[in-house]
Every structure is written in C-alpha cells, then in structure tokens.
Amino acid sequence: MHKKLLRSFLLAMSIFMVSGCGIIDMIYLPPAEDTAQEIFEAANDAMSEKNYVRAVELYNKLRDTYPFSPYTIDAELSLGDAYFLDEEYELATESYKDFESLHPRHEAIPYVLYQTGMSLMKQFRSVDRATTELQEAYDYFNRLHQMYPDSPYAKGAEEHMLTCRKLMAEHELYIADVFWHMKKYGPAWHRYEFIMKNFQDVPEVAEHAKEKSLVAYHNYKEEQAKETRQKRQGSWRDWFKWL
C-alpha cells in the first residue's frame, strides 16, 4: 500500500516538474524569433494593405536579422518599392542604388535602373528649380535603354528621356526669360543661344529660343551702342569743362 502511494506521489511530482518547467520557460524565456519567411510574408502583407511604413520596418528587420537568407535580396528590392510608393523618393533612390551596387548582375537590374530614374525624376518640382535630379534620371534611363534594349522597361525609359530633356530645356528657357524681363539682354541672348545648340531634340523650345535670341541680340547691340555714345558724350563734356 505504501509502495503504491509512493509511486503515485513520485509520478505526480514528475508531472508537476515537467509542466512546471514549461510554465517557467513561458515566463522567463524570450519568445521564438520570427523566421525570415514569416517576416517577408508579413512585409508583403503590409505592402498589399498599403501600409508602407510597416513594410519598410519589416524589410529592414529581415535584412538586418537574416542578411544571408534567400528572402533578403527580394526584401532589399521591395524596400525601394515601399519607399517609392510612400512617395519617399530620396530614400527610394538610395535603396535602388544600394541594390544595384550589391547585386549588379541580378535579373531585376533593368527594373532597378528604371525605378531609380523614376525616383529621381519625381524629385523634380518645377522649372524654376535646379535640374540636377533630372539630369541624373536621364542618365539612368539612357543606361537602361543602351544596355537592355530588349527589356520591357526600355520603351518607357526612352519616353522618360524625352520628358527629362524637355523639362531641362524649359528650365534653361526660364532662366533666359528672367534675364530678358530684367532687360539684361546680353546674358539672355547667350542663354537662348545655349538652348538652340544643346536642345535641338526639343524643337518647340529650341525654335522659341531662336526667335527670342534674335530680338535679345538686337537689344543687346543697341544697349552697347547707347553705352558707347554716352561714354563719348561724357568725354566731350569733360574736355569742354577742362577748357
């Protein structure tokens, strides 16, 4: 009888100890880390829900936690997309550039070049601002068009190249017109001439610049002649005063 009670007691204690360890583990041990696949799928779900801030957070977590996971490369590419869709174009540009630098032979490089160009072009605000981003965007679209002519993105890149050139020409025209309205016809004439020579692929802007150039040159020469007459008249007045 005592032996049976002892066995029952020991069995109960064993069960308690086992379950107790499980409870202790639940209380004191950290929760299991999400796998790379789980993080990637959660990030993609956030993208589908247009929660781009959360998607960025998860793609970065995957990249930092599992740098050698097969999901990490896709996460790095999707990170740029998340920034782009969230209209964080500078961060998108940086992400796409990083991807190209890390994976220059990846099959998605034509897409990356296209998206880099788009991210740069989206940073352009108006013709009265600098065109640094536009020129860089043009260079990326041109690289895509030259290196991957059979890519499905090549045609779009060619169209955006024309858009970039048109906006750059309009920027130069804006500066020339500012000089014109300030009646600084010399600088205006030089700007119009620059447009004529460097933006022949934007015929409507080049033609307008040609027309304004002729008038600006005429006004500029008249100003020079007027200044020359005034100097001569001034020298004669000074001579008579000396007498």
Automatic annotation (TrEMBL):
Which positions, given as ranges, span the membrane? 9-29
> By its UniProt entry, which CDD domains does this protein fall under?
BamD
- Is Transmembrane a UniProt keyword of this protein? yes
What UniProt keywords are attached to this protein's entry? Answer: Cell outer membrane, Membrane, Signal, TPR repeat, Transmembrane, Transmembrane helix
Mind telling me which InterPro entries this protein's record contains? Answer: BamD (IPR017689), BamD-like (IPR039565), TPR-like_helical_dom_sf (IPR011990), TPR_rpt (IPR019734)
Domain of life of the source: Bacteria
Q: Where is the signal peptide?
A: none
**Lipid metabolism recorded as keyword:** no
- TPR repeats located where? 73-106
Q: Where would I find the Outer membrane lipoprotein BamD-like domain in this sequence?
A: 33-230
Q: What is the name of the protein in this document?
A: Outer membrane protein assembly factor BamD
Task: State the organism of origin.
Answer: Desulfovibrio intestinalis
